């Protein structure tokens, strides 16, 4: 008797579950069909979308940019660095140049290959690791690249505040890149 009641209960539960599933599918189809009923934007509406309305690129690492090979003088230990707008002539982009919000963002590109580096030994190339905001300052961390992974040679970072600057800091004590060239300075200032 218990087994029969259990079987009936299971049958009812599966029926209710199946019915709910079918109802959800019907509701989803109705929503989908309703969206096709809306008229497409007119030519005037679509032409209003110009280059000015394109959103700025997201902050963070970029694998698609390098420094131009001319003038790779160290700015920080073992590292040539340039900071500027995305269309800066010192930057070589692999694809389309990203649009940035010039009031709030800058592009930072770093290069270790071809830059003199005394006492570093055999280390891999430098790689952007991340940034932190410290008051009005932006502090960019640089690491030794992990071979076999894409190497971010640059990043889009926030523009520093009115009383701030952009500094580089090695990601670890073993990292030779990004230390200040001037003895006694804690960080290497790049902007």
Description:
The protein has 2 helices and 10 strands; from the N terminus they run ααββββββββββ. It is an alpha+beta fold and 191 residues long. It has 2 domains: 38 residues; 135 residues, no CATH class. The strands form 3 sheets. A 4-stranded antiparallel sheet has the order 1-8-5-3, with no helix packed on it. Strand 6 and strand 7 form a beta hairpin. About 16% of the residues have low confidence.
Secondary structure layout:
Blueprint: H1 2-36, H2 43-47, E1 60-62, E2 65-67, E3 80-84, E4 91-93, E5 105-111, E6 126-134, E7 137-144, E8 154-158, E9 166-170, E10 188-189
Parallel strand pairs: 7-9
Antiparallel strand pairs: 1-8, 2-4, 3-5, 5-8, 6-7, 9-10
Quick recap of the structure?
The protein is an alpha+beta fold and 191 residues long. Helix content is 21%, strand content 26%.
Can you tag this structure with a few keywords?
alpha+beta; 21% helix; globular; 2 domains; 191 residues; 4-stranded antiparallel sheet; 4-stranded mixed sheet
């Amino acid at each position: 008797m218990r087994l029969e009641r259990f079987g009936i209960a299971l049958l009812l539960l599966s029926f209710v579950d199946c019915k709910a599933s079918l109802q959800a599918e019907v509701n989803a189809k109705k929503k989908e069909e309703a969206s096709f009923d809306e008229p497409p934007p007119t030519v005037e509406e679509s032409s209003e979308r110009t280059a000015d309305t394109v959103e700025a690129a997201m902050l963070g690492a970029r694998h698609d940019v390098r420094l131009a090979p001319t003038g790779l003088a160290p700015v920080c230990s073992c590292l040539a660095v340039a900071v500027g707008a995305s269309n800066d002539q010192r930057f070589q982009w692999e694809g389309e140049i990203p649009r940035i919000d010039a009031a709030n963002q800058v592009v930072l590109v770093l290069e270790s290959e071809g830059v003199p580096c005394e006492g570093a030994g055999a280390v891999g190339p430098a790689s952007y690791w991340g940034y932190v905001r410290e008051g009005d300052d932006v502090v960019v961390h640089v690491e030794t690249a992990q071979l076999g992974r894409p190497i971010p040679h640059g990043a889009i970072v926030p523009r520093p505040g009115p009383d701030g600057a952009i500094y580089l800091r090695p990601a670890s004590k073993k990292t030779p890149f990004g230390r200040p060239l001037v003895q006694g300075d804690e960080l290497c200032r790049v902007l």
